[in-house]
Amino acid sequence: MYVFTTTNNYIQILPDLWIGFLYTLLITIVGVLIGFVLGALFGLMRISKNKVIYGIATVYIEIVRGTPLLVQIFFIYYGLSDLTGINLDKLTASILAIAANAGAYIAEIVRGAIQSVEKGQMEAGRSLGLSSRQTMRYIIWPQALRRMIPPLGNQFIISLKDTSLFSAIAVTDIMYQGRQYASSTFAYFESYLMVGVFYLIITIPSMLILRQYERRFERE
Amino acid sequence: MIEVRDLHKSFGETEVLKGLSTTIEEKEVVCVIGPSGSGKSTFLRCLNMLEDITSGQVIIDGYDLTDSKTDINLVRSEVGMVFQHFNLFPHMTVLENIILAPQKVRGLTKGEAEKNALPLLGKVGLKDKAQAYPDSLSGGQKQRVAIARALAMNPKVMLFDEPTSALDPELVGEVLGVMKDLAQEGMTMVVVTHEMGFAKEVGDRVFFIDEGIFVEEGPPEQIFDNPQNERTQGFLSKVL
């Protein structure tokens, strides 16, 4: 079989995929961290009683969730530079795109987690004389954060896989590196098999850690 | 200490409180009884503005709660509240539950707040539970922690919203015992309760509330032994 006659390809692709691996991790980790900050902000805005603040967050979330990520990365990388004259490099554009995208989904995770904290907790805090901001900070948020961890872990895995789309703007992530190798060697099977393996190297441990946390969480 | 003038409260179209007026003196223990849905909890929750007041006035220790210039957080810090479902903070230890508000609202240091908290834990009989988490406590213990937490703010008034209704019968006594001690120390208390024995024994005055109005009020002997109003008689014949 063809596959087994070209075992060299499995080795030769490794340095390329290693670079891609670093890029994918960098984009995902920095992007999701920024996305979490955005998500916390928009999530809090979504539970605001102020209609304008609520409206801004809702529009943002609906736009991001209602358009494909591929459109979003093209818009940020090509569209925004056209409009502002500022040329973002591919890496920055990728990080911004995944941050903006994950931010919208995380906002809903944050909103849901905060709203899942019993109403009595807010009342207890307020009845002690704490302001609503203090009650949020010391009582509601810490409880909500623990409930957010499992869905945030899922979002990390989803975002990680989503970054493969950014190969379309030639950022040198796992997917792009694999594609380059494949088209120069015609070793498509080996290349994309190894691309898959490299994603799994991140996703499988992530899922295991997540499951561990959930199990501990359930016991408490 | 507490003055309520023509208090009305509506939820949407439904009027729950239909003009309540009363005065509660310092060191007085008032028990509020009545059928479920009568508005007794809503009345209590209006006393620290956990419910918005639709119309009327509530004046506590000279502060008019309905005046928009009143610092509501300041008033609440002087009014302790104990809830039916305890509402302890599950992510904090018993001690942390108690010292949070004294630190954040009163500005005490952790050390000062702890120094005040430990005698309170002793008072409710839970000195050895300072480092425990609420999940590991029984209902009665939780409610006693909740009382200590409220007392840590040195409140001028304590509000109790059916404090024993969520407890197993054998745990009711320990909570009522703590409340009785408080009453004897001269705490001003408003207690919404189904515990008629407690109201009879500890209450200075009993309010019977039905369909959003005070139907009858008076010393416990009068309300329980010689009720004047037909609705009071009907209610008591069902619960006693």
From TrEMBL, chain A:
One GO location term (cellular component): ATP-binding cassette (ABC) transporter complex
The ABC transmembrane type-1 domain, residue ranges: 21-210
Record-linked CDD domains: TM_PBP2
UniProt GO MF annotations: transmembrane transporter activity
Location in the cell: Cell membrane
Primary subcellular site in the record, as a coarse category: membrane
Membrane-protein topology: Multi-pass membrane protein
Pfam families for the chain: BPD_transp_1
GO BP terms in the entry: amino acid transport
Record field: transmembrane: 20-45, 52-79, 91-110, 156-176, 188-210
This protein's UniProt keywords: Amino-acid transport, Cell membrane, Membrane, Transmembrane, Transmembrane helix, Transport
SUPFAM superfamilies: MetI-like
Stored NCBIfam families: HEQRo_perm_3TM (TIGR01726)
Family, as annotated: Belongs to the binding-protein-dependent transport system permease family. HisMQ subfamily.
Name the record gives this protein: Amino acid ABC transporter membrane protein, PAAT family
UniProtKB/TrEMBL annotation, chain B:
One annotated GO molecular function: ATP binding
Matches recorded under InterPro entries: AAA+_ATPase, ABC_ATPase_HisP-typ, ABC_transporter-like_ATP-bd, ABC_transporter-like_CS, MetN_ABC_transporter-like, P-loop_NTPase
Keywords: ATP-binding, Nucleotide-binding, Transport
Domain of life, per lineage: Bacteria
Keyword flag 4Fe-4S: no
Domain ABC transporter: 2-236
Protein name: Amino acid ABC transporter ATP-binding protein, PAAT family
Organism whose genome encodes this protein: Alteribacillus iranensis
